[in-house]
């Protein structure tokens, strides 16, 4: 199956995958709140799963990323309900060493909760340890930022399909934007978010931080290259390493990437 100009693909008799739109934003954020913020290893390690305000700050991060117009959702055909999502982010190489990356700025300026700040700083630190722009000699990437599926729809390979189509979407951006989301589309709750300037470049790689066994299996299945492995016990929130709350001292994350051309 090829990604079509209609921005929607039927992937089984139960689901379709499509670009995030004004109609699906609310449902996509609900999946992050109910799934990622509760079950993801780093959400547990940083206690975002116990802090509703911190979870809301992660939803703001997702809403901000949505403006890049590269996020995808899975919709259940029988209910028209969003059941899985990949919030993706366009990352552009900094023009100077003093310029802070997006995640670092968000953690410093827009997080009021220590738990959400811890999680987003984790992302910034891990991304910063492996310069994929330099490694691949490129200036732009699409990052699969947050991947989540509602519990009752897991084990259907929806995460794998979201990542596969995210890679396909990233390749198509060479020809121009696919889907447009505006600050107005996000609703009044997110009216403080700054609108996007059009990107002057396009992704040459797709990257991600896989933080669980499930996402690491997806990366392997889709031929992502692992460039860095980091034990999650290195990250501490409120005096405890993430792994203590996760209940697995050997848990780790992977920084991965895949060339698009």
Automatic annotation (TrEMBL):
<protein>
    <recommendedName>
        <fullName>N-acetyltransferase domain-containing protein</fullName>
    </recommendedName>
</protein>
<dbReference type="InterPro" id="IPR016181">
    <property type="entry name" value="Acyl_CoA_acyltransferase"/>
</dbReference>
<dbReference type="GO" id="GO:0008080">
    <property type="term" value="F:N-acetyltransferase activity"/>
</dbReference>
């Amino acid at each position: 199956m090829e990604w079509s100009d209609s921005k929607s693909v039927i992937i089984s008799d139960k689901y379709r995958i499509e670009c995030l739109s004004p109609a699906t934003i609310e449902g996509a954020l609900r999946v992050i709140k109910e799934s990622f913020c509760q079950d993801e290893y780093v959400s547990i390690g940083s206690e975002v799963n116990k802090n509703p305000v911190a979870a809301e700050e992660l939803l703001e991060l997702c809403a901000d990323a949505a403006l890049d117009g590269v996020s995808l959702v899975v919709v259940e055909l029988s209910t028209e309900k969003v059941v899985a999502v990949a919030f993706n982010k366009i990352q552009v190489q900094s023009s100077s060493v003093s310029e802070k990356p997006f995640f670092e700025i968000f953690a410093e300026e827009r997080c009021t909760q220590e738990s959400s700040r811890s999680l987003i700083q984790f992302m910034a630190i891990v991304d910063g340890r492996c310069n994929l722009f330099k490694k691949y000699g490129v200036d732009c990437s699409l990052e699969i930022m947050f991947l989540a599926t509602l519990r009752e729809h897991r084990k259907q390979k929806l995460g794998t399909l979201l990542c596969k189509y995210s890679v396909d979407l990233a390749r198509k951006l060479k020809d121009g934007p696919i889907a447009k989301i505006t600050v107005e589309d996000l609703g009044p709750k997110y009216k403080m978010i700054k609108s996007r300037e059009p990107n002057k470049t396009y992704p040459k790689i797709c990257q991600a931080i896989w933080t669980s066994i499930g996402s690491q299996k997806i990366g392997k299945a889709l031929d992502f290259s692992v460039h860095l492995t980091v034990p999650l016990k290195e990250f501490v929130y409120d005096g405890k390493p993430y792994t203590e709350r996760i209940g697995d001292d050997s848990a780790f994350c992977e920084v991965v990437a895949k060339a698009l051309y």
